[in-house]
Every structure is written in structure tokens, then in C-alpha cells.
Amino acid sequence: MELDALEKRIAGLRSEIRAAKAAGDHATVRSLRAELRKTERAWDDALEPEPEPAKAPLLPVREQVHQALTLLGVPTAAKMIVTVNEAFFAGHITTSQLTSLRRDEEKSFRTSPYARPYYLCAALTSELLSPARGLLAVSTWPLPSRIIGPLSPRADFLTSATRIAEHIMRLTGAGEDASPSAYRLLTRMAQNIPGAVDGFDQADPAQVIAAAGAELAVHEESDTDERGEAARRAEQQLNEVTRLFGAGLKTARTA
């Protein structure tokens, strides 16, 4: 299907989704959203030719993870790291690679502490100071930033959306185009932030930043206090290894 036809179908699907949502037909909304995502992927494939084989190897996995986490600035799950890496850095890593990466980082740190400029480490739960399940952070971040309290998942989601929007604006400000997948990621996130996007349109970065900031202001003080108190306990109770990789063997599920 040619680009014009795909674009026409995308516009039509968005209109149909709005009508189905207004009618309260949730099953049709879900079906149409799935077709919309499929059609948008087809549009991307039609727009962008197959890339030539890389002539040089990509960055090592840990460096790809580090650059994605640096963009986001908050403890992040493997799936999101993979998505951001692909959308902004054209990298390719898998969630299975990240599963063993944190264990390797801890082993390296225990063998030779601080031999590397940074380590990919665990986020810590505010209650038990144990590794928060599935979340990676960077050792050079301040300890409170690596703590996950009750409000932290939402606060960090809003922070991530803001930083992604800001990065897109930096790219466009420098005369570069963010990839369609970067805008799709921002739009998906914006749909979970009140006032961040109009219907099913593509998200506007400035609007996302404003809406995310407004909600973050509601949670930020309490979240910061919780993280700060937990960080003080961690400084008193944990050693240099467990401050990075968590206490004990327990993990806690985060929302």
C-alpha cells in the first residue's frame, strides 16, 4: 500500500476510534487501536528503506543501556530501556540481555570496586532497601534518585515523559528529525497523562512537558521526602555494595 493510501487509512482509523469511543464501544476501540498501530508500522516501513548492514559494531550493550538511562534520568524497566534505545539511538538490545547485565555489573563491582566510571545497578525499595524488581539505575546518580517509594513509579513516569519530550525538542531545535518511533513512544506516554495530548493525535512535546509538570508538582514533594528518608537509612545500614545492588535476596515488585 502506498504512503498516501496508508496516511488516508491512518486518518480514517483515528476518526473511527473517536466515534467508537464516543459511543462507548470499547471492544471496537481496542480493535481499531490495534489496526492503527499495525498501519502506522506499515507507514514507517514504507517511508524508511531497509538500512544497510552496519560497517562498524554497535556500542556494547552496557553503553547502550547507559545512554538510554541517561536520557530518561530515572530507574527504568528493561522494556522501556530497549524501546528508548531503538527510538533515539538506533541501537538494538534485548530484554534478555538486560536480565544478566545487572548480575554481571554486581560481580564486576565486587571484584574491583569503582574500577569503572559507572555501574548499572539496582533501584532500591524505600521500605526494605532491597532491589526493586526489574528496574535499572546508574551508580553515579544520587542515592535518593535510585530509591523507589510509593509515589515514585508515577513520578518517574512523568519525569521520563518530560525528558523524552525535551530530547525531541532538542533534536528539532538542532535541525534534526526525531524518528517516527520516538513520536509514537511520546504519544503513548502522553495518553496516560491528563491534558498531555488531544484525542489520538500525535503528541506535541511542549504540551506533554506542561501537563507532566503540572501533575508532577502534586506528587513531587511527598515523593522526594520518602526517597530522602530511605536514602538516609541506606547510608546508615548498607555497605558500598548493597547501596548499589540492594540488601539481601528479596526483591519488591514495583507498579
Question: Would you kindly provide a written description of the structure presented here, covering whatever features stand out?
Answer:
The structure is a single chain. With 255 residues, this protein is an alpha+beta fold. The protein folds into 2 domains: 1-50; 51-245, no CATH class. The protein is 60% helix and 7% strand. It has 9 helices and 4 strands. It has helices at 3-22, 26-47, 61-72, 78-89, 95-111, 152-173, 180-190, 205-237, 242-245, and strands at 76-77, 120-125, 131-138, 147-148. Strands 1-3-2-4 form a 4-stranded mixed beta sheet. Strand 2 (120-125) and strand 3 form a beta hairpin.
What's the gist of this structure?
With 255 residues, the chain is an alpha+beta fold. Helices cover 60% and strands 7% of the residues.
